[in-house]
Amino acid sequence: MLNACTRRLLLLISFTFFWIYLINAQNNFPLKFTNSAVYAGFDVGSKGVKLSILEIGKNAKKSGAFNILKDTAINTDFISFTQSTFQATLNALTNLYTSLITQYNLSPEKIFVVMSSGVKIQAEKENKFSWLKDLTDSFRLRIHDPKRQAAIIDVTEEARLSHLGIVPEAKRYSTFLIDIGSGNTKGGYFPKGNTKDIKLFQLTWGTKTVANETEKRCEDDKSIGNFKNQLFRVLAGEANSEIIYAVNSSGAYNMSDNIAFSGGIAWSVATLLYPELIDNSVVPVTFDEVVKFNDRLSKNYKSVSDSAIVKTITDKTLNIKAIANEAKKVNQVFDQKSLLVGTGLLLKIMRQFEGIYEKKQFFLVKNGQVGWISAYVDQNIAK
User: Fold this and answer.
1) Half-sphere exposure of residue 289, counting CA atoms within 13 Å on the CB side?
2) Fold entry, domain 168-371
3) pTM for the model
4) I need a labelling partner for 213 at 20 to 30 A (CA). Which of 53, 181, 323, 329 fits?
5) pLDDT category, 184, cuts 50, 70, 90?
């Protein structure tokens, strides 16, 4: 029999080895590239704090070579600008930053903090810009780093960085990138053969704003049938007029061969339409395919559940569990109505590029949520 002292010693040794194993396991990321380094980027956005741990390849600027090692989000509703949401955002930022230092052994110079254009716009609109400075100052105090920077970017710079982070250099000047967000839609292309000047594309409509306007029109009838009717009216009204004007004024139709969509709805449609391409971060689609998918959402919504999606997979060499999990994740984020809204808005924009004599190539980008932050990290590595 072991005495109490020996048992405590063995327990301490076991506990120590467990933590050594855990830390080592956390640092052993599955790197894709032979010549790369690991960096982390924080996006303090409208909903809260998003952390992306990225493997940046040596040729990232030329090929868009970055690998998402970890992607974590904590919803704190920062743009409510209340003391509780401020504290929640500060705590999330501090705790995640500390984990990068202690658990992942990342040095501070490899960690970047950026506040998104959505936060900037809302803060300016509500005269709350001082809250952004207060958050930065409080964060510096918490981590004992008085020189820590938290850059604030505007919508034009975010669109430029998104393009640089998502589109490889081979298609840099022939691709029009459109990010469909919840509150608005933004994007652009580079018309002058350089990456400094981006032609900005903006819409005040996003998946949430379209959904809100549709719900208002539904009044007491909350059925799917009535929702579809009112959604048609919303998209055929002011939203359609704004889309047509924005596309025409951008000049993108004549300047771009490829139209790439990012944002939550792009990820959702790509995942449910082509589940077998789970490992592909970019999925090519046609206008007609998205039209048929939209009809499927209306007439056979059960067919996009994770259990139904798995049944369509014939290639047994694929990771069925991973496919099911990804489809389930989509359905947890987007219900039937929000999928109808998102695909409806997507189709309205796609329609403007579906010419009779010239066909554009459409792409859905699934990892667009870390595109701009990856480009920001990449551009600041050498500074």
Assistant:
1) 13
2) Nucleotidyltransferase; domain 5 (3.30.420)
3) 0.77
4) 329
5) confident
